[in-house]
Amino acid sequence: MPTPYWKVRPYILTGGRTRTRRHLLVHTLVSVPYYDAVFASGLLPESRSLYEHARRTRSVAELSAVCGMTLGVTRVVVDDLAATDRLRVHSDQYTSPFDFRLLERLRDGLRQLA
Question: Taking the model in full, what pTM does it have?
């Protein structure tokens, strides 16, 4: 019996990789410094969706959710796009995942969703 589509596609998107060159946390912010429609048209649909959604600064977790990709796949695709300088990974300003500023940002984001 052939392997189901939903199990093969993530493997294709990541080239079988599960690790990234950068340390990408769920709250790491990414954005597109300048949008290139020609570049976007040559991407796989999932990568294109991520690239287009990152036109507005978003966290890795947000991109994962809006693009419908697992967090692991999202991290690898973000890392690949960042390696081509098409996606900017913002430096983390937090010293720990329990940093007070991060918690405030999360609280504010949740309020916006409510």
Answer: 0.70
